[in-house]
Specification:
Order of helices and strands: EHEHEEHHEHEEEHHEHEHEHEH
Largest sheet: 5 strands, parallel
Radius of gyration: 20 Å
CATH architecture of the largest domain: 3-Layer(aba) Sandwich
Structural class: alpha/beta
Number of strands: 12
Distance between the termini: 40 Å
Shape: globular
CATH topology of the largest domain: Rossmann fold
Strand content: 15-25%
Helix content: 25-40%
Number of helices: 11
Strand order of the largest sheet: 10-9-6-11-12
Number of domains: 2
CATH class of the largest domain: Alpha Beta
């Protein structure tokens, strides 16, 4: 099967959605392919290739140097896991959109770390009763003065993030019974602050000792995926904003995901206003 990812210019989660859609199609096809010929590019949003670090169960991956024609037309704007996108891209005449939609979500379970990552993950062993902290901060944080510029529902304001960071012990203590905490973050400052804050308490702290870089993406592809697959081993994920990474973890392992930004707390009214602005923008785009 030809897997064309050349039009996925957004992050890893969108690339993963496209790949799992191809897997779903292959699973439902009467003539199943045992080889995926993948063509993909390194982009600003995803500066690494899926095929360099990940594998698909029972599928051999061959990397293509040149693009080949594919009957599936997926891009950064039509990979969200919705029945609407399934209807747009369903290649089958006799298989319903609902069946393909369910198969798409099930296909995530076939995504596994490659050999290189597996070796690294062996050094990142976590206790079974662990809580994962997913701290997405760099590209999903907005100043409140820029409220009207908000574009994504998975956005957190800088003062909310500051509160979360400084009150992390209280948040964990009052709501969760876990003593083992895995920390995954895209900001060195916030990660170091939370590690130091929790180390002063009774929590056991685990994390990937990575090197942060300058640029749009602060971590390497390898370090990002070590955090990603480590979070799949946690019983529950507490995320600042949720988004594609936590959705993928849920579909791969069925872990409980808690989006702190969506919880009923002191920032509920701020969240309501944010979502209402996004809703109005969507109406304007769709109907005007």
């Amino acid at each position: 099967m030809i897997v064309d990812l050349s039009k996925i210019n957004s992050g890893f989660s969108d690339k993963l959605r496209a790949i799992t859609f191809y897997i779903a199609i292959n699973n439902l096809n009467s003539k199943k392919s045992k080889i995926f010929y993948i063509f993909e590019k390194i982009t600003k949003e995803c500066p690494f290739r899926f095929s360099d670090y990940c594998e698909i169960k029972n599928i051999k991956i061959i990397k293509l140097k040149n693009k080949r024609a594919s009957t599936i037309n997926l891009n950064s704007y039509n990979t969200e896991i919705t029945i609407k996108n399934v209807a747009k891209n369903n290649p089958f005449k006799l298989i319903s959109n609902q069946v393909l939609f369910r198969e798409w979500k099930k296909s995530y379970k076939k995504i596994i770390p490659g050999k290189k990552l597996k070796q690294k993950l062996k050094n990142n062993v976590l206790p079974k009763n662990s809580l994962g902290l997913h701290l997405r901060t760099t590209d999903r944080t907005l100043k409140f003065s820029k409220l009207l510029n908000i574009q994504f529902k998975d956005t957190i304001f800088n003062f909310q993030l500051e509160y979360f960071k400084r009150n992390i012990y209280k948040i964990l203590q009052n709501n969760y019974k876990f003593k083992n905490i895995y920390i995954a973050a895209d900001s060195k400052n916030i990660k170091d602050f939370i590690i130091s804050r929790l180390k002063e308490t009774k929590y056991n702290i685990y994390y990937n000792d990575l090197i942060f870089k300058k640029g749009f993406r602060k971590t390497s592809g390898e370090d990002f995926l070590i955090d990603f697959f480590s979070l799949t081993k946690c019983e529950i994920i507490l995320s600042t904003v949720g988004a594609g990474v936590t959705q993928s973890i849920f579909l791969i392992k069925g872990r409980k995901i808690i989006n702190w930004n969506n919880q009923f707390n002191r920032f509920f009214f701020v969240r309501f206003i944010s979502l209402f602005i996004i809703f109005l923008k969507k109406i304007k785009t769709d109907y005007f």
